[in-house]
Amino acid sequence: MATILHELATNAVRHGALSVPGGSVTVGWHVTGEGGLELAWEERGPPVPGRRPGRGLGLELVEMSAGRQLGGR
């Protein structure tokens, strides 16, 4: 989980909502009925200049960590 949160925060600062004035991040989580953990990460703010659409290496790392190491999706 530390790797996932670190990667999300780093990406938000470099390329996302926290890279522009007025941007914000909301993080929430809860334990599911099956004993799992559901994490919600929401970025809000003005458009980020120069932001490239598509999937980046950071998202691949998050998905790999969640899926392979934690058995999540």
Tell me about this structure:
The protein is α+β, with helices and mostly antiparallel strands and 73 residues long. The protein is built from two helices and two strands; from the N terminus they run αββα. It has a two-stranded antiparallel sheet with strand order 1-2. A hairpin with a 5-residue loop joins strand 1 and strand 2. The longest helix has 13 residues, at 2-14.
Short description:
By secondary structure, the chain is an alpha+beta fold. The protein is built from two helices and two strands. 36% of the residues lie in helices and 22% in strands.
Quaternary state of the chains = single chain
Mean pLDDT: 86
Helix content: 25-40%
Q: Can you count the beta strands?
A: 2
Model regions low in confidence, pLDDT < 50 over at least 5 residues: none
> What strand order characterises the main sheet?
1-2
Query: Biggest β-sheet, characterized?
Result: 2 strands, antiparallel
What is the helix tally? 2
The shape is: globular
- Which band does the percent of strand residues land in? 15-25%
Tell me the distance between the termini.
13 Å
* Class based on secondary structure composition and strand pairing: alpha+beta
Give me the Rg, rounded: 13 Å
Series of H and E elements: HEEH
Secondary-structure map:
Layout: H1 2-14, E1 24-31, E2 37-44, H2 57-69
Antiparallel strand pairs: 1-2
